[in-house]
């Protein structure tokens, strides 16, 4: 067993202009039974114009605190502030539209402290309802991401002291501040420490098709295409700088394909065809297909992407 029990936890939830959707999530966390662990919730309101009503939180007393930002920091800037302000020694990063599964959190903590050396890791991962992995437990390194071992979404639990002492932060790129890009942080931590990851589901994924603000909502693929394209580019740069583009060419090609598609969705067809020529490695026939796609209207490409994603999940 681990040499020290976890005594305090803070759940950090960022929120921007979604004052009602967060309330069921808060309720699902408050109702988690925990053994000898003090838990509080810290909501970081990211300069919302449609703010959470403090009266909706009064019944929770000191267990739920609201911290408002005077300027919009984006999802990662808000998370970083939340981690810094959190009272808990461990910090759970929760989304404001993903309620927690009943009685799931104590099991998650038990899994973490079952590791003899758990105090050395900056971050841990547990599945959400769409998360999949081939084993119940994996100590993830970079190859697990580049070989697409993990599918879907995962909930991170942060060991605050180790995380901050090693200078880790969620990446705050201005170009992608509304979509995040936590995968870049995952690459870095997985390469240096490894990330203990369990196939234990702690949160229910919000419905992307009905939740308009959710990044995976198909409407956002066009609205935020420029930011999604930039994220693919940042991931490709990360791989090239470390030689991973040669070691994991399939994953690099997968990211280049994303860069190509999102560039087209952003309306930059000529630039998209340059990406096709420079970065993508396909058979002659497949290259012709992608070239033809580049001449389609953006809304048609968006429909094709939605069909492709549904078939691949």
Characterization of the model:
- The protein has 313 residues and is α/β, with parallel strands linked by helices.
- The protein folds into two domains: 8-203, Spore Coat Polysaccharide Biosynthesis Protein SpsA, Chain A; 218-312, no CATH class.
- It has helices spanning 22-30, 74-85, 105-113, 142-146, 160-165, 182-192, 218-223, 225-241, 244-247, 249-265, 269-279, 284-293, 298-312; strands spanning 8-15, 38-45, 64-68, 90-94, 123-128, 137-140, 154-159, 195-203.
- It is globular and about 60 Å long.
- The protein starts with 7 loop residues before the first strand and ends with a helix.
- Residues 208-212 have low confidence and may be disordered.
Outline the fold blueprint.
Layout: E1 8-15, H1 22-30, E2 38-45, E3 64-68, H2 74-85, E4 90-94, H3 105-113, E5 123-128, E6 137-140, H4 142-146, E7 154-159, H5 160-165, H6 182-192, E8 195-203, H7 218-223, H8 225-241, H9 244-247, H10 249-265, H11 269-279, H12 284-293, H13 298-312
Parallel strand pairs: 1-2, 1-4, 2-3, 5-8
Antiparallel strand pairs: 4-7, 5-7, 6-8
Helix pairs in contact: 8-10, 10-11
